[in-house]
Amino acid sequence: xxxxxxxxxxxxxxxxxxxxxxxxxxxxxxxxxxxxxxxxxxxxxxxxxxxxxxxxxxxxxxxxxxxxxxxxxxxxxxxxxxxxxxxxxxxxxxxxxxxxxxxxxxxxxxxxxxxxxxxxxxxxxxxxxxxxxxxxxxxxxxxxxxxxxxx
Length: 151
Fold this sequence. Notes:
By secondary structure, the protein is of the alpha+beta class. It is built from two helices and seven strands; from the N terminus they run H-H-E-E-E-E-E-E-E. Helices cover 17% and strands 25% of the residues. The strands form two sheets. A four-stranded antiparallel β-sheet has the order 4-3-6-7, with no helix packed on it. Strands 1-2-5 form a three-stranded antiparallel β-sheet, with no helix packed on it.
């Protein structure tokens, strides 16, 4: 009788163990137990208004707003970022790069709630590959073409 009782307890433990493992499926990402397909995110090398990827809800906060200052031979491009920033979420750098992603000019910023910069790029202003960029510590590199998208 004692051995039957042990066998019964052992069988119940095995069943309990199997039930527990069958409930914890890989890919189960919900309380209801339904499997959800997890799609990995591949970060982009740069984000734009048209290609904002996983940060699409944040694009208005991170896209550079460009204003060309007319009749100026120096400090002729003003760049602002309109998002709300703080010590944990901030813009690290604002700058200008060419089509090969070479940094032409830029300013490293302190943790500021209102990031902006005035940059100089008069001699090569007409180059179609020139982009203004903003580098966020959390949401990567955001770019906007300098030509045809200025405000």
